[in-house]
Amino acid sequence: MMENHKYAVVDIETTGHSSTSGDRIIQLAIVFIENSKIVDTFSTFINPEKPIPFFIQDLTKIKDVDVAHAPLFETIGSKVLDLLQDHIFVAHNIHFDLPFLQKELKRVGLPKLVCKTMDTVEFTKLMFPNLYSYKLQDIATELHIPLNVAHRADDDALATAYLLLKCIEQLQSLPLKTIELLHKRSFQLKSNLSILFFDVLANKRKKYDAADYPMYRGIPLKEVEKEQPASQISITFPRTKELKTTLFQKGLNHFEERQGQFAFMDEIQNALEKRTETVCEAETGIGKTLGYLLPAVIFGMGHQKPVIISTYTTHLIDQLVLEEIPKLNDILGLPIRVAKLKGMQHYIDLYRFWQHVQLDDESYDETFTIMQILVWLTITDEGDLTELNVSGGGQLFVDKIRKTSLSKILEEREIDFYERALRKSEKCDILVTNHAMIMADREREKKLLSHGCATIIDEAHQVIHASMSRKERIFSYTTWKYVLGQFGTLDTDQLLSKLAVLHIPLALRIRLEKQYVDVVESFDQAISSITHIIPSIKGHSKSTKRMSTLEDLRLNPSSFRAVATAMQTYILSAKSILATYAKNKLDDQATVLLNEWEYWIRELEIKVSEWDEIFLLDEAVEAKWLEIDTRSIPGSLTIIKRPLNYQKDIKEAVDPLRASGAVIWTSGTLTVPSNRHFITSQLGLSTTIPIHQYRAAADYYNGAELLIMEDMPDIKQVSQSDYIEAVAEAIVQTVLVTEGRCFVLFTSQDMLRKTVEIIQDTNLLEDYMLFAQGMTSGSRMRLLKSFQRFSKSVLFGTNSFWEGVDVPGDALSVIIMVRLPFSSPDDPLYKKRAELLSVNGQNPFTAYSLPEAVLRFRQGFGRLIRSSNDKGVFIVLDRRIETKSYGSDFLQAIPNIPIKKVTLENMVLELENWYTNEG
Fold first, then answer.
1. Which of 326, 585, 888, 895 would disulfide-bridge 701, Cβ 3.0–4.6 Å?
2. What EC class is this (predicted)?
3. Which residues sit in the known binding site for ATP?
């Protein structure tokens, strides 16, 4: 039984990653667990007989002096071996600690440690499949596990021991049926967790009380929360300042009235009542979200219909639902009925998942992801797959179980998450969705957002990006090859050969093989017609990246038509199998295979549609360009098509919402000083729609100042490498004096990469976590969350990084803007826009390039100060802000704060004074 197991939780700190290359252990710690309790600990420094590298000293805070008089591993090795005997060896990433220890034991002539193992990384990923990160520090924060000093073996081992106990506790809390399903697959895990699964299962069966879990065909789900009835209490909008103040003071601790917030509320209320359209620019510091939520909730409750609130990212949706609306519950003293609605593909298709659970898995990744989902289904309310944190291989499995069509009639008590979300969206006071849903709704037969009584569009400027993303088409060579590779020929282990279990006539399979070979050959020929032109495309002499518009390449369309024709022929034959065999009664294996076949045909149809749009159809207002890295041809080939006529798209999407009631567009940045209608005209809004601006109080920005570096070299006067060195030096000096919490904004991914590489080579910021867009793996939100977790961290991003990204103030103390955020003149999108503006007699620089850059500048500054207590410095390394006439446009776009021109040396002194006087 579980009580008999003894665990030794181990952590080591070392001089580097490779024992065979001479690296040594400098600290070792063991925490002993018996009967689910910590019973003993052992910890010691170890003399590595060599200097500890500086970056390891910075990371672990273990200095040479700490280990100078510590024992050698030879002295304590046999004791460590004795301590670990007869225990299950546990570590956080066991593939580092155990092999390293084994090599050290071998080096000093001791026998190999023979033991069972458990990896808390593997265990935590299974038990908490929705954590954003599985680094020990991040897990400790998320699960409230004490971890005093990270990267110290004693503290890390103790935190890992607590984590093991927390994972066991979570396993014990799962439904019996879930544990049975997990145990069945646990033998395929990389560590010996199956021992634990068996013990917990045996114990659970002994004291099992038939808990009534909601089930889907034998798979337990989380208990469904009962729908809240509509509030019977009538509440009216507080029209006077006194009534608003009283209401807010009653519900919020330490409420302070914010300048502009009440006026903003009144404008929202006025638009809701009069069913009008309005634009409200509410600067950071106004309290925008609560400002529109209060009138929206009262209006929705009064009309017994939802007010639709749309924002840009999943993160902002969660922020609204988890942070802002609960505040409103407290203010109004009423339960607010809230629903979230995203596109169908965000939700799990339980039937497809159940089918996969019946079969043998194809790989470790698939086994592991199925186990993660089994646990996740017992904790998820929404069934939204974006909650899951799965590996790259796991993501391929997740894509197979996405919802793609409405269910047939559900059996009694069966649950469908998407249809549950639809039902909930019809009976709520506030319906939170995203811009992509609004853009997609116009094409749905049954409109999902037609039952609202008003619409508030937050982060309104991002509707432009939502429209562009929706109509954007991307051809990726590797993705195409991957999709085509799923079908294969009869002599491969791919889908076509597997179809033998359906007893499909050989003649049909041979025909499919021939048609498949035609597809692959015509595809390769078409790609070849592109790649042989690549050497003639100009690029930077030292860069391997190449970019060209498609019209400059003058491609012959006939070879691209041949691909489309071959694909359509193949798809028709492939679909005939579905039509014939879907009617037959098949066993589970055959059913899953047929579903898999259907899934990949659907993917192929999507690809053909993209192929047609990119290579065979031309719209007047669009940009099409090719990107490739000459080190990987054709593997890196990507072709992007982005239409620019999004006003019509936006109008058609928003018109049905206009018919339902008020439409309110709001954001922190909707105007630039030189062009009030710059954004609203791109949204297709009439100039007759009023734009209301709400500014924060003057003292809100008391904690901010702007520094302009006046001794930066002029980029046109020096080589790129000299300029990048100067940028790297300025960043390093800034980070060292401010101790991190720094965001560095570039206009070029190439310059970002080279700057980060220089900084990494110097090791001067070895003590800091560096997160870089395009270099550090993970989505923008994952990078941002990682950045927020560490006080000593630096985030490097390009213009695109913070479009739709919000950084809470306490996570940021400095923004360094390397170059004013103009689009590159080589950017195909900018080129096309400039061409269209010139044709219409406008100056592309003043009509588009400058206001776009000023808007980005405003948005960048807006990330710095998020509350009146924040302190932050905005550093501009680009001297054009003072040497060019348009520099004043940037400075006028931000609040009136102190602006200082400084040298690098004086900037360091200025920052030291700034942060010394903090508070």
1. 895
2. hydrolase
3. 282-289
